[in-house]
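Please check this today:
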Amino acid sequence: MMDTGNGPGTSGAYHPATLSILTLNCRGLNIPEQRTHLLRELKKNRISVALLQETHFRKDAAPKLHNKSYPTNYFCDHPTAWKAGVAILIAADLEFQKLDSLLDQQGRFLFLKGTIAGMLYTFATAYVPNKRQAQFLRER
C-alpha cells in the first residue's frame, strides 16, 4: 500500500497524487467574512491550488487574502474599479517555484508557470466579460 500523506502523523509534504485544484467564481471578496469563509473552505477541502475569478479587488485597495495555510498568492486586479479580478492561491505544503507569469492589465486573466517537485505546471484563471466574449478572446 502506498502512503499518500493524507493520514494522521504525516508530514504534510506534497505528494503528486494529492494535488487538488479548485476553480471558483467568488462574486466579490471585499467583505472580510467572505475571505475568511473562502480560506476556511479551501483548507477544509485540502485544496492545493485555488483559481479564483471575480475577486472584485482594486489594485490600489486590494485587501489581504492569505493566511498560514495559503501564504503564496498571485493577483491580477482591475486598476481603478471594483470589478473583474482573478487570483491564484497556493497551499503552504506545496513547494511551488514561480518561473514566469502573464497577466491582463484589466484584471481579466492570470497565467502562472512554475515547478512543483521538479514537474512543470502552468496554472491559468480567467474571467471573460458577459458580452462580446469571442471578441475579448480574439483580442487577447
In short: The chain has two helices and seven strands. The first strand starts at residue 21 and ends at 25.
